[in-house]
Design goal:
This protein is mostly helical. Helices cover about 65% and strands about 5% of the residues.
């Protein structure tokens, strides 16, 4: 069977369980198939949980770190670092992803963002 990529809506239904039918289908997919999630989709999930559902940042991060154990992701170490950084810093998640690439993979990051540059300079 091919790997299945799920989008933010599937993850949100699974995590929030706010639509019984969709949550059940999402759970079946995640529990019974090889499911892959991209960093971009995680970014959208964070945006929706924080912006629409008003879930506290720490709760979002803890929930997502647990969720990552149930799916496959590219560059898991970078994604985990990005989520942990997001929980601790006052930065957008995408900036935390850039920081994580710098921290974990030693990629050089160029930005005009002062908060991100400050964080990058601490390594």
């Amino acid at each position: 069977m091919n790997m299945i990529i799920i989008d933010a809506n599937v993850i949100l239904r699974y995590l929030l369980n706010d639509n019984e039918e969709m949550a059940s289908e999402a759970e079946m997919l995640i529990k019974n198939h090889e499911v892959w999630v991209t960093i971009e989709v995680i970014a959208e999930v964070i945006y929706v949980l924080k912006g629409v559902y008003k879930v506290k940042k720490r709760e979002v991060c803890n929930c997502l770190l647990e969720f990552l154990d149930e799916v496959r992701v590219d560059d898991r170490e970078v994604l985990e670092k990005a989520i942990q950084t997001y929980a601790e810093c006052n930065l957008d998640f995408v900036d935390c992803v850039l920081y994580a690439y710098h921290s974990v993979r030693q990629y050089e990051i160029k930005t005009f963002d002062k908060k991100l540059n400050k964080l990058l300079s601490q390594i």
